[in-house]
Amino acid sequence: MSAPAGDPDASPVRVLVADDDADIRDLVEFKLTQAGYAVEAVPDGVSAWEAFEANPPQLAVLDVMMPGLSGIDVLRKIRESGHPSVPVLLLSAKSRDSDVDTGFAVGADDYVIKPFSPRELLHRVNGMLARAR
Amino acid sequence: MVGAALLVGATVVILGACLLLVILVVAVRARRHSRNQRDEMLLSPLRPPLITVASGEDDDGAATEELTWATGVSRTVLDRNIVEMLTKIRGVPADQLVRVLEVHGAVDAAVADLTSRSTVRRARAAQLLGLAKAEHTVPLLVTALGDEAMEVRNSAAYALGLIGDPVAAGPVLAAIGAPERGLPAATAAEALQSMGVGISEVLRDGMGDPNARTRMVAAHLSGERSFTRGLPELRRLLDDDPDVTVRETSATAIGRLGRGEDVAILVRHTVDSEPLALRRACVIALGELGDPAAVPALATLLADADPRLAELAASALLTMGPDGSSALLGHEDDAAVRSARLMASLQRASA
Amino acid sequence: MSWDGLIEGLRSFVVWVMDVSSVPIIIYFLLINTSLLVLIGLAYLEFRAQQRRRATALTWQGAGLAPGVSLLVPAYNEEAGIVTAVKSFLTLRYPRHEVVVVDDGSSDQTFARLEEAFDLVQVPRELPHEVPVRARVLGIWVPRDGRTRLVVVRKENSGRSEAINVAINAASEPLVAMIDGDSILEPDGLLHVTRPFADDPTRMVATGGAIRPVNGSRVVSGRIVRVEMPQTWIPRIQLVEYLRAFLLGRTGWSRVGGLILISGAFGLFRRDVVVEVGGLDPDSIGEDFELVMRIHKRMRDEGRDYKVEFVPEPVSWTEVPVTATVLRNQRRRWHRGLWETLWAYRSMLFRPKYGRIGFLALPYYWLFELIAPLLEFFGILIVPLALLLGVVNVPFAILFLVLAYGYAVLVTLSAMVVDEWAFHKHDRWRAIWQTIAASVLENIGYRQATVWWRLEGWWSSLRGKKHVWGVMTRTGFDEDPA
């Protein structure tokens, strides 16, 4: 999962992407990699949590609807395990205000609603990292 | 002897059928595996350009071009994948993918498939037309709302919602109550949600429909989308609809968009001869309205025999400023008032 | 009387029994097999419907019409798992739901754990008394954060049914779901079971979703993350039973409009309807089944247009008994509940007012669920005896057994095909072979044991033995999945 570094002086920012949908996983990975991020993409909640624990990324993009552990479950675990500051963006399905409510209640920083514009997703990721610094 | 022969025959049939079923289970699974593998193989060369286009990185249009060249089975598989992709992304990349579908002739093929004999084909065709925002097919999709298969009716409503042309609102609403071939209320509501303001008239008419489900969807959406034009009908439904669910829905809608004069109407239905669920809905609606004219009526409900109704009344009064608060005087020790105060303070602290 | 004379007498007795009983038994056999064939036919229809539904599936996100749901969780001494369970219920994917936990006078730390995890504050609230409750309510608590939608009620111990009735009173949403603290829900399970309510909001009164055994699967934070086969044969065979019950039984009944048993599944009800019929009957042993029957009766008595539907999607997972002792208790209780409820509602049989419930569903349950173990027991007794006494020959007896049990296997296999096509939850090939093996092994020992246990349950009810309340009522579920 190496990425072309945007800035040659700094190592690329690591982003964890979790979505059971291969289309979204691939295109988010592609989009963020193009933008210079180092992306690790995983297909389910458990792998997301394992990847997070093994090497906490600087930002996580989690799909809400995944089999097994949902994005909200993973977020809950992240927040409960002493990583309160890693920004998390939730990918939520269309017109699901409640996912967003639950997500914010558990500690999400931002969300994108599907169907989404990949460009908008990138802007939000950039914005979240800028705010986190 | 005949009995024994019969027994043997039956046993053979049974065991044979068992064997057949085992083979079927295995075949079903094997077929799924091999299908998936075949599709993946066919798609693999097209996957990189597809992802490039879908992620909006195809600035020079080369990847889009590459996708349009696909032929034969790979084109079929690709088109299916594009349709799935369209449920996930929007904006410029989605428009580019629709163009690929058009070049492939998939949109025209879907129009033809709308009258196919296969239910699955008809349903998928309708979905594709919606995802491709094929506005010119609205009349065809409206016809499909009356399809014999529920899957097709559902897909047609979904497509009409995606296209969002308010012309279809009337047919979608009417389809809910079609005898034997009704459109599920949830699908209809979702489709109507995404249509423009032009539907308020249709919703108003829908509240006079003979079918309770249609009236409920119309009432619900009038509230959700704040179409004040429907108020007279909502009041009428609350007053005398034979279906209690419709009445509750109307009360909630009035709470969202009602006016001063609606206080009296809602209050009328908080009397204890009404169903409890409706009384509660009306008290909540009075709180939503927030009009201090409701204070005297809510104050009398503080002593209601139903503790929840009393607490809801207290909560509503707490949102009504000084008038509301003064009505709580003398009830400070009531369980309902103390609970309502505590809940309100917890909610304030978290906000 | 000589030994030989005794044997001879016994032999002529057996011959006589077989002569007398052969016609009724053959009729019964024909009936049960025809009903199985009908079930298989229904399974085929279901198979096609599932195929279409899957191929044209649209994701429903519960926008708009999704009614709010209160999840009712009775808890008795569940300190170990209650916090994880409640957290997993709170984060289900659904636009509007609350969790109502009723601590049924636990003697362990159940309440303390909840209090600590959610920072509970006591509310001086008085509960509505819409459903009559005998036990005293000790207090009501909510989380301090003011937004987590959890209500915890403590009451004196009085059993699961009363705990649920208290929870119904405390619930504030239009739909209520009764779940045990040890069940595991699919993250979007609620979206599946509420869908019929959103599609037909004015008529739907109850829905049920399928349950599957969780034994052997990997669970993390109250969610199934990997579906595996159970390690031992007792739960494996139950897995087969559940498949058959839900994919053929319930779905079939739902299709013909005669669904009377949604309990044992994940059940969701309109709160106002449950209140109207008076909640769960705390004196009934098959309380969930009894509730559904009471709802059917009330709706039909009043001539209301209503629907009860089954959703074949698996929505809930539960631990099934691993030992014969626990299984025996469960089956005795199930059969006793079945008998008591069928008996209580015998007046609904063959009355035109009750339509398919009275003419189809209830007679079926009488004949093929209630009485079946009795006839099977008779067969188990008479066939070996006849063999021993030389009344029938060995090949005939074997053929007879193969035929009888072959049918059972056939039905199970049909359920497997539907499952494999529609859900394929198990992705290992080994799971298929183990399931097939379980469907055969079921007929060797397991089946005979359950026949006996079911008769035990029935018998204890007939003798008027009082059912003992307490811990036992809280294990497993409360209805026969068959």
From TrEMBL, chain A:
Q: Which positions does the record annotate as the modified residue 4-aspartylphosphate?
A: 63
Keyword set includes Phosphoprotein:
yes
UniProt keyword list: DNA-binding, Phosphoprotein, Transcription, Transcription regulation, Two-component regulatory system
Superkingdom of origin: Bacteria
What SMART domains would the database entry show? REC
Keyword match Membrane: no
Pfam families in the cross-refs: Response_reg
- Give the CDD domains listed for this entry: REC_OmpR
Q: Which Gene3D superfamilies match?
A: 3.40.50.2300
Q: Where is the Response regulatory domain?
A: 14-129
Which PANTHER family does this chain map to? Answer: REGULATOR OF RPOS (PTHR48111), TWO-COMPONENT RESPONSE REGULATOR ORR33 (PTHR48111:SF1)
Entry protein name = Response regulatory domain-containing protein
Query: Which lineage is the organism of this entry classified under, starting from the top rank?
Result: Bacteria, Bacillati, Actinomycetota, Actinomycetes, Micrococcales
From TrEMBL, chain C:
Q: Which domain of life is it from?
A: Bacteria
**What are the coiled-coil residue ranges?**
none
Q: Give the residue spans that cross the bilayer.
A: 25-45, 357-390, 396-418
Is the keyword Cell membrane in the record? no
Supply the InterPro entries for this chain. Answer: Nucleotide-diphossugar_trans (IPR029044)
Sorted alphabetically, the keyword list is: Glycosyltransferase, Membrane, Transferase, Transmembrane, Transmembrane helix
For this UniProt entry, the molecular function terms from Gene Ontology, in alphabetical order, are: transferase activity
Q: Which Pfam families match?
A: Glyco_tranf_2_3 (PF13641)
Looking at the keywords, is Membrane present?
yes
PANTHER family recorded for this chain?
POLY-BETA-1,6-N-ACETYL-D-GLUCOSAMINE SYNTHASE (PTHR43630:SF1)
Entry's family note: Belongs to the glycosyltransferase 2 family.
Official protein name in the record:
Glycosyl transferase family 2
